[in-house]
Design goal:
Shape of chain A: globular
Strand content of chain A: 15-25%
Strand order of the largest sheet of chain A: 4-14-13-12-11-10-6-5
Oligomer: homodimer
Number of helices of chain A: 13
């Protein structure tokens, strides 16, 4: 199901086979939380050559709800996207005090952001929901915690995450759907090790590293990735959840990570922070008003092929929705092009040089 | 420059030649006020087969400003749209008390909605601005007044509109840019006649009917159109400004109108009012949640080709930008398809039947 096709030191290229086709790894997934990307239609995602995206099983369970999904013959048909889809447990929502009511070993009690209604999700219930959604990859329920907790709390959350992972796997019956386990443990070396060893042994189709890029320091994040990766089977696909920025992707691919999702590229785009190989471009700055060249001449997104920085600056300053559309498209396409180039570098056995050059160019103005 | 190619009673098909190519008439122009449609990129407009749109010369003069437009070699190049563009004087803005400071025979003093700065526009200055913008069709400065004024005020505004039209024409030098005169006169038969006769005699490239669809009663609007058309040369292209709804287009084409612009289709789309040949569909209504068929199976917009009413309902209820994009695209494409079908009916000499059938189907649930 996952086949490594090239390696360049720890970085690797591969193919990940799902019920809706193969994904070339490494890859970046845009976030399509509730059935559409923010300011991105599926028309955009097709044009951007998106291979796969991730949706939120919690929120889809609430809206449109599983009855609608069943009537539509699954989530793929409801949204009419016939390529691979991941669904996340929504563990990330546990960080939101408006959402989380309480949590114990049985599962999670939470409040619908749409209706205020109270719902309960157990590991078994979550797997059943994802089974009905029919995503290609279902993530287990995990206990995500922000960095402002003590070690005892992280230890309990890790123990719970391990127990929930086992229950998710045991209750999962759908042969067409892969299941990924998630390593938690905050930034603690021993907890990451404990969790990674336990999750690794359970026989998941893929292995995810979660609970990062949520406020911890950057160097601690990288160490936590290392602590986790060390105990995970090399041959399994590795997914670093919620990460992130172009430099994070490039560095993590260098460590052997294969898969990423993040709202960062689209969120930045909506705030006028535009990715280029020579660092970020702040489109709203006045000095862009008379720059009559594209954001990146090498980029094949609509904005780069058809528009100048001056025009996009004009739209952004006027807060036109078209700016958010065009700039979100660019940043997503930037991420896809980045992993496409990373794959090429790995195939040529030159990933280290690629990483070095990318980071030098991208961070030179920082 | 305008050639009538087919007629079906008063309705007619033709070709209107501009510096950026021919436009098939009748046609509908989406509104691209400040350099982008609302939730519509030029990528969308191209896909929707938009022939031409209208932008606002007042607002473009303020932002990005004429210096930027000059540096970009004109508005077409600034936005990179190489097909015909109309620019409106912005007479419509005179209805906005936030915008208009004062007005007399010399011109208009108004406040920038961006900076609060005060600007003065004379007929001559407006033509110079539109000349710099380089639009294919420049509209004259006219005195637009809402229906809550008395006849004396309308009479003065009509006299002013006529005087301004003459000054616009006299100061216009750009051979590549067509100039359209505008008939005002509220809903008064004698004022419309006076204005139409005067404007008609000046030798404009096209003749517009303005000051309608701004709050007056529907039957008064139709009468005012008739009062104006009666005194305008049959052979000249006729533009009904700011109108409007699908039924208004169909009825007005039946009277001999060739050209329309309106924000109505996109504004309605953003409010969930979706055009179909069988009347409007209110996408937000709960009964749409399980309708797994397209808005219109005959429509070739992305939403109709790829998505169901149920999916669009879901996005709309979640207030996703993707809903506004997809539904705006549909309503604009609906307008373009409507005039395409109108042209076909005129060519076949069957416009009357087309109009009758369209209105029967479109209004049957009203």
């Amino acid at each position: 199901m996952f086949k490594i096709t090239s390696e360049s030191k720890l970085a690797r290229c591969g193919e990940f086979k799902t019920a809706h086709g193969k994904i070339k790894t490494p890859f970046y997934m845009p976030v399509v939380t509730k059935g559409a990307g923010k300011f991105l239609t599926f028309n955009s995602l097709e044009n951007l050559k998106t291979q796969c995206f991730i949706s939120n099983a919690y929120l889809l369970y609430l809206k449109p709800g599983l009855e609608t999904i069943k009537k539509a013959n699954g989530y793929h048909n409801f949204i009419n996207w016939q390529k691979p889809i991941f669904t996340d447990s929504g563990g990330f929502q546990l960080l939101d005090p408006e959402f989380l009511i309480s949590l114990n070993d049985k599962g999670v009690k939470f409040r619908s952001p749409f209706s205020g209604e109270v719902h309960f999700i157990s590991p078994e219930k979550l797997m059943e929901n994802q089974n009905i959604l029919g995503s290609d990859v279902a993530m287990v329920l995990d206990h995500v915690m922000g960095p402002d907790h003590n070690k005892k709390e992280f230890s309990e959350a890790t123990t719970r995450t391990i127990a929930w992972a086992k229950r998710c796997l045991d209750s999962h019956k759908n042969k067409n759907q892969k299941v990924f386990g998630i390593v938690q443990g905050g930034t603690y070396k021993d907890l990451r090790k404990e969790c990674a060893l336990a999750i690794n042994d359970m026989g998941f189709d893929g292995l995810a590293i979660g609970g990062l890029a949520i406020g911890e320091e950057k160097d601690k994040m990288y160490k936590a990735i290392d602590y986790s990766l060390e105990y995970l089977d090399k041959d399994k696909i590795k997914y670093l959840m919620g990460v992130g920025s172009p430099e994070d992707l490039v560095k993590s691919i260098g460590k052997g990570v294969d898969c990423f999702d993040s709202i960062y590229p689209t969120k930045m785009a909506r705030h006028g922070v535009i990715f280029t190989r020579n660092g970020v471009l702040k489109i709203g700055k006045s000095y862009n008003a008379h720059i009559f060249k594209p954001i990146e001449k090498e980029c094949d997104c609509y904005a780069c092929k058809h528009h100048t920085i001056a025009y996009l600056h004009h739209l952004y300053r006027l807060d036109e929705a078209a700016a958010k559309i065009l700039l979100s498209e660019h940043n997503v396409r930037f991420m896809h092009r980045l992993v496409e180039d990373a794959r090429k570098a790995i195939e040529e056995g030159k990933y280290e040089q690629f990483q070095k050059k990318f980071l030098k160019d991208y961070l030179k103005n920082k």
